[in-house]
Write a structure and sequence with these properties.
This protein is α+β, with helices and mostly antiparallel strands. Helices cover 36% and strands 33% of the residues. The chain starts with 11 loop residues before the first helix and ends with a strand.
């Protein structure tokens, strides 16, 4: 007897077919999720930096390096050339103004001084001889003048006497004419003698002035030569420390050779190099600060050197207020130079994110702290610690500030602790 066999509903073929359909559906859903939804990446919170956005004082500052220099330095150059005969001190010595440093010898210069002294002595001797001759000539002229005066008086007496006798017809006109001629001659003779004396006097004065001028010129030349010989002993121009001094006994030094320098002990200045990018923002009066032995000190720019060398320019800064104990010439300081006044601003700490985003966006942590998502932001100024936030963030927000180098185009980070 035949019996009806019930047909199976879930055959192997149907199960395989159904499984294939479900798989394709899941694949389609997954594809849609990863292509049209947000791309996510799991990150370990221990390997990233999460910072809080805050509001606080902000100032544009740049870090620069400065080197400590003496407030005043005077170079020691050899005024005259010569051979080093004696060194009175060594490099690093503390000097007093006028204290000898070294002595040079220069036979040619010393011989020129001796010749100049001889020339001055000869000129002085000639002046004395000329003065004696002028005095003798003056005495002779005065004696001659006395004789002329006496002869004129005698001629005048005879002329007046003969004039009276002629009126009384005691003498003839011939005798009177002779007396008159003699009187006129003596008057002209006196006038001539006076002219000669005036000319001699004027000539003597001119000659004496010329001789004195010549003597003074030679004396100045002698003083200059003495100074040149005196410069063979090099002395400290100011009180301070002798540095960069390098000279040895027997060494020949040419005129103008740099022997060293004297650093005044009156104070210090700091010379700093700054990138030329900031040259339009740097001017005298800007302030800075540095820390030495856990104490902060203030500086102020007093001079800007606008010449750019290798992409950098220099400034001189002076200490404001207290001078650090133990500060030394040549010491390097790390300075924070302020380029703006201090203002209130929304701040985000600096980090590696900027290299990837350019400051246009950032990963902001959600309120539950489980994810971080992209938000557009706008940054403005910066200093070594913070960026100034203009748009996109508010105080209290938390953001990922570490590097985004491994995040690719991820739209969201899933924050997990491993």
């Amino acid at each position: 007897m035949d019996r009806v066999i019930a047909k199976k509903k879930w055959t192997s073929k149907r199960i395989i077919t159904l499984a294939g359909i479900v798989g394709i559906a899941l694949l389609i859903c997954a594809s849609y999720y990863f292509t049209s939804g947000k791309s996510r990446l799991n990150v370990d919170t221990e390997r990233i930096t999460i910072s809080e956005v805050k509001k606080g004082p902000f100032q544009v500052t740049i870090p620069i390096n400065g080197i400590v220099l003496p407030q005043t330095s005077i170079y020691l150059d050899a005024q005259e050339g010569g051979r080093v005969e004696q060194k009175f001190v060594e490099d690093g010595a503390m000097m007093q103004e006028g204290q000898p440093i070294l002595r040079l010898s220069n036979p040619d210069l010393e011989l020129s001084l001796a010749n100049q002294e001889t020339s001055v002595f000869n000129v002085l001797t000639q002046m004395q001889i000329a003065r004696n001759n002028a005095q003798q000539n003056t005495v002779s002229r005065r004696n001659q003048m006395a004789e002329v005066d006496n002869a004129l008086k005698e001629a005048e007496r005879l002329y007046n006497l003969n004039k009276k006798l002629l009126a009384q017809k005691a003498i003839g006109s011939q005798e009177f004419q002779q007396a008159e001629n003699t009187y006129d001659y003596q008057k002209r003779r006196k006038e001539l003698t006076e002219d000669i004396m005036r000319q001699d006097s004027s000539t003597n004065r001119i000659q004496m002035r010329q001789d004195e001028q010549s003597y003074m010129n030679m004396k100045k030349a002698l003083e200059l030569m003495k100074k040149k010989v005196g410069d063979l002993v090099v002395k400290a121009p100011i009180s301070g420390q002798l540095t960069s001094f390098d000279a040895e006994i027997g060494q020949n030094i040419s005129a103008g050779t740099r022997l060293g320098q004297i650093d005044a002990a009156s104070g210090f200045k700091i010379r700093a190099d700054i990138d030329e990018h900031y040259i339009s923002n740097v001017f005298t009066g800007l302030t800075g600060k540095f820390t030495l032995v856990n104490k902060e000190y203030k500086l102020k720019i007093k001079k800007v050197y606008t010449q750019v060398v290798s992409g950098r320019f220099q400034v001189d800064m002076e200490l404001v207020g207290e001078v650090p104990q133990g500060i030394r010439r040549g010491q390097t300081l790390q300075i924070l130079l302020a380029l703006s006044d201090e203002t209130e601003a929304i701040l985000v700490p600096k980090g590696g994110f900027y290299q990837t985003t350019g400051g246009n966006w950032i990963f902001k942590v959600s309120e539950d702290g489980k994810t971080a998502y992209k938000v557009d932001i706008q940054l403005n100024r910066q200093n070594p610690d913070y960026y100034e936030v203009m748009e996109g963030l508010k105080p209290g927000d938390k953001v990922v500030t570490s590097s985004y180098e491994n995040y690719g185009n991820m739209q969201e980070l899933v924050l997990k602790k491993e």
